[in-house]
Amino acid sequence: MTWAGRRPSVNALAAPLVDALAAEATALRIEVGEASGARVIDAGAKARGSIEAGRRLAEICMGGLGRVSIVPQGPVPSWPFSVQVHTADPVLACLASQYAGWSLSDREEGGGFFALGSGPGRAAAAVEELFGQLDYRDAASSIVLVLESADPPPAAIVDKVARAAGIAPSAVTFIFAPTQSLAGTTQIVARVLEVALHKAHELGFPLEAVLDGIGVAPLAPPAPTMLAAMGRTNDAIIYGGRVQLFVEADDPDARDLAEKLPSSASRDHGAPFASIFEHAGGDFYAIDAHLFSPAEVIVTSLKSGKSHRAGRIEPALVEASFT
């Protein structure tokens, strides 16, 4: 895999967004504090949080390389507002930053904390195999990591992240929000483009050929429990998400990607995610990995100018999940 030009620092690009988030904490209904020497921002646990906090959190997750908007209408007519995502650098924004690929646990130290880490801080630590495949590591002097969690990170996690990135705990910011919060729901639905990039990578499509991308999915209403919220946010993407990728590829390759990318290519497609999860015994790994992708995909070949469509929006399934 080869990449042209100098690649930016996702942590440096995200830093002013993080500082602005913290500066406007009162207006966004979030709380800024300190834990084990690191800055921590509660965006939806004890703090109420907000949709706007979630929108900004999604842009931070994308390492400052993406634009996230709340837009009227969208793929599912009965839900009037959607989350729209765009980036001119899908690989870095989505895979090197936004993807929740860092499993963080303090169980070896006798604790009970577990959370998936996403955001630019992953690229500074680069402990995941993915970063070797991307040939990217961010030599940042300060980092931000986003946790899908209702709790701030304990001392062992702060130390683990700081050591992996080669910086002091004081140079680390953690932002955390549970899935069922306003901010958590918003930033997870904003992963509609990211799941498409992740699946394209799993399918073996050359990532350097993906030059631009845009995605949209209905803004799911928050749910009172984590499991219900997880179901709604997944359904927003799996049955209500639409993505367009612009690729430097010949038509046969673009068409093949379009046909394999949508969630309808999965054997588990067709039921609300909460039901699928329950049927799998609560085991994510028992669910067909091909399910985790947008409902509808358009792949545009920049060589031919032709666009290839596949998949379909499932309004009835979204409606059943959201109500």
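Next protein, fold it too.
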Amino acid sequence: MDRWNGKVAIVTGVSSGIGEKIAVGLVKHSVKVVGLARREDRLQKLSVKLGKDHFYGIQCDMCKEEDILQAFKWVEKELGGANILVNNAAFLSLNLLMDTPTAEYYKTIETNVIAPTICAREFLQSIKKRNTCGHIVNINSIAGHFAEAIHVPVGMYAASKYAVTALCSELRHEIIAANLNVKVTSISPGLVRTEMVQDFIANLDVRTLEPEDIADSAIYAIGTPERVEIHEITIIPHGTPIVDLNSSLQTKQ
């Protein structure tokens, strides 16, 4: 991680769970973190915890392009631009597709696909302009690779995460074509104990991962030597077959 000492990282969905743990891990390695999230009170608490010279919270609705663009402009103006982007913000609706309002479809796609794409575009344009190196980490999901193994309703979530898998490939192709020195890593966890799913798993006997497990993997990927690019990291709870990830959930319904 020494090569990133004093550099800037943008982390979305930073107010809790995986995003918060990634922010903490980056700051421990002397990376300045700009955290994007909707909940201003959480951003303020994290700023106090990590230090105002190490963490900069920006209130940002990932479904609003103007918020995202404003945040990236601020980073460019005040901090000279970022070298690390972690697309972590996500939305999950545990409803059947056939019962879900159209507005919820859009919210899922806007948060999970459009927002990280906008962030990647702004990040790469900044990298190109500054002729520097960078790393994009997209927090994906097992749902973006093995939807057939998930036996509970997740609405548009799996479809959106399959799009993230394709997004990573497209970004990598374009980066190579543009001769940019930027890595792209997809991290695909199984069930993680976060606020997004806490009500769902509260009364279930099911193995889960913790947010710090995913954060540790992100820090590992970011910290690899320049010659190494981690394409994909798949993380599942120990003892859970990847092809039957949620069979225990199915039996509880």
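About the second fold: The two ends are 44 Å apart (CA to CA).
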